[in-house]
Automatic annotation (TrEMBL):
Binds 1 Mg(2+) ion per subunit. NCBIfam families: glmU, PRK14352.1. It catalyses: alpha-D-glucosamine 1-phosphate + acetyl-CoA = N-acetyl-alpha-D-glucosamine 1-phosphate + CoA + H(+); N-acetyl-alpha-D-glucosamine 1-phosphate + UTP + H(+) = UDP-N-acetyl-alpha-D-glucosamine + diphosphate. Residues 1-239 are annotated as: Pyrophosphorylase. The active site is at 372 (proton acceptor). HAMAP family: GlmU. Homotrimer. Its cofactor is Mg(2+). Coiled coil: none annotated. Residues 451-484 are annotated as: Disordered. Its EC number is 2.7.7.23, 2.3.1.157. Acetyl-CoA binds at residues 395-396, 414, 432. This is Bifunctional protein GlmU. The gene is glmU.
Length: 484
């Protein structure tokens, strides 16, 4: 559901926590699902409600986190949290990084809640605005609410406050409505309530949750929006939860594409990053993984067992049991089975990179084919050229890489080796096993292999008594071995 909401004055993303349960040298919020860091998803959801300002509060692994954040969001305001612990302190320091007189709605989210969407935030802000609330908290009803802050409601159903699990009575622990940690606040209420928050609780932290009861005590209206989709408020604290969230995100991504006209034969074995773009009538076969900025044109068939990372696939192309990165596959082209396209492969319209071919920095023109068993690197190939089986560009002299340039309508025979730098003109041919060290003019046939010499009777003379010698002796017209 999408709800029109007023753009909030700011979103503050809390990202200062350590995330020790990940047991990782990498900060928790930099762990990825769906091709993006968790905090990257948080920033994308925040961007979805178009805030005037976006703030991230950091502390743990500060420099590494900030570098990542500024890469994805150069306009981000960074707020450093000091050594006073707690979500309340984090938000207070986020506020300090904003103009002192900021007014309107301040939204708070977490850097480790990756399935939250801009639409869900929009609904929260819309409800907050519609009722002119002081605070609106996003909540969920969970089968197992252990560990979460519980939403305490009055007899009339209104939100009285939030009690943390560690501070809760047994009766309060029985409440199944939990605090997601995602809120919309009136800026002035937030500022004045935070000034009254103490660290007098079980964890000795400044609890942001205390703002609700303080605001209510000051006469403000405090309300909750209960999400019907608890995945949206679920955080990842360890790698088991990370995998579960990643799987659910992928399920949602696959469903979205199927609903918009993509055939996914087996969504359980198909992985699609959130920034991938697919056209209608694309078919994805089992075992397909599409990563990064990969985009696939209409009627293309990908898979089975194919991984594409930042690859542009043209309309009607097929890619089967192959791996490609940072490459382009033209309209109607065919790749695989078992092809390996390394960065900067540019396969032209109706071209082919066939079985057991590896390419790298290779520009292959329209209709040209590299069908079987070879390597093409640092190469430029014209149109409608046929590269024979087992051809290799020897592009590396041990120190530098060199280019091979092959024209259009060229026919190269099996096992041709191009010793770069070298060029082959339009319409040229090579002979089987040619080692092309010198440029080949247009229309020439390049032969480099020494003439063949047959040493008659060699096997029987040199391998007497062997099965080969016996076979040779039995062959029609075979010379009689001289074993005397
Ligand atoms: C918090 C809530 C709890 C809620 C739960 C939802 C409080 C007091 N409690 O609990 O009601 O059910 O989230 O997941 O707010 N962070 C900082 N600085 C800090 C502490 C935390 O930036 O000093 C950030 C963390 O990086 C994280 C988020 O705030 O993104 C939540 O921190 P966490 O420690 O997980 O909060 P909980 O105690 O689980
Ligand atoms: Mg938590």
């Amino acid at each position: 559901m999408s709800v029109e909401a007023n753009a909030p004055a700011a979103v503050i993303v809390l990202a200062a926590g350590a995330g020790t349960r990940m047991k990782s040298a990498k900060p928790k919020i930099l762990h990825e699902i769906g091709g993006k860091s968790m905090v990257g998803h948080a920033i994308a959801a925040a961007r979805g409600i178009d805030p005037e300002r976006l703030v991230a509060v950091v502390r743990h692994e500060r420099d590494r986190v900030v570098e990542h954040l500024l890469q994805i969001e150069p306009d981000l305001t960074i707020a450093d949290q000091d050594d006073v612990p707690g979500t309340g302190r984090a938000v207070q320091q986020g506020l300090e990084a904003l103009p002192e007189d900021i007014e309107g709605t301040i939204v708070v989210t977490y850097g480790d809640v990756p399935l939250l969407t801009g639409e869900q935030l929009g609904e929260l802000v819309a409800a907050h605005d519609a009722d002119a609330n002081a605070v609106t908290v996003l909540t969920a009803r969970l089968g197992d609410p252990t560990g979460y802050g519980r939403i305490v409601r009055d007899d009339d159903g209104s939100v009285a406050g939030i009690v943390e699990h560690k501070d809760a009575t047994d009766a309060q622990r029985g409440i199944d409505e939990v605090n997601s940690g995602i809120y919309a606040f009136d800026a002035a209420v937030l500022r004045s309530a935070l000034a009254q928050v103490t660290t007098d609780n079980a964890q000795g932290e400044m609890y942001l949750t205390d703002v609700l009861s303080i605001a209510r005590g000051d006469g403000g209206r405090v309300a909750a929006v209960v999400t019907g989709d608890p995945w949206q408020v679920e955080g990842a604290n360890d790698r088991v939860q990370l995998a579960a969230l990643g799987k659910e995100m992928n399920r949602r991504t696959c469903e979205k594409w199927m609903r918009s006209g993509v055939t996914i034969v087996d969504p359980d074995s198909t992985w699609i990053d959130v920034d991938v773009a697919l056209s209608s009538d694309v078919t994805l076969k089992p075992g397909t993984q599409l990563h990064g900025s990969t985009a696939v044109g209409t009627d293309a068939v990908i898979g089975p067992d194919t991984t594409l990372t930042n690859v542009q696939v043209g309309q009607g192309a097929t890619v089967k049991r192959s791996d490609a990165t940072d490459s382009t596959i033209g309209q109607g082209a065919s790749v695989g089975p078992f092809a390996y396209l390394r960065p900067k492969t540019d396969l032209g319209e109706s071209g082919k990179i066939g079985a057991f071919y590896e390419t790298k920095n290779a520009k292959i023109g329209k209709g040209s084919k590299l069908s079987h068993l070879g390597y093409s690197g640092d190469s430029v190939i014209g149109e409608y050229t046929n590269i024979g089986c087992g051809n290799i560009t020897a592009n590396y002299d041990g120190e530098k890489k060199h280019q091979t340039v092959i024209g259009s309508h060229v026919r190269t025979a099996s096992n041709t080796v191009f010793v770069a730098p070298v060029s082959v003109g339009d319409g040229a041919y090579t002979g089987a096993g040619a080692i092309v060290r010198k440029d080949v003019p247009a229309g020439a046939l390049a032969l480099s292999v020494a003439p063949q010499r047959n040493s008659e009777g060699w096997t029987q003379a040199k391998r007497p008594g062997s099965e080969s010698a016996a076979a040779a002796g039995a062959a029609p017209g075979a010379p009689v071995a001289d074993n005397s």
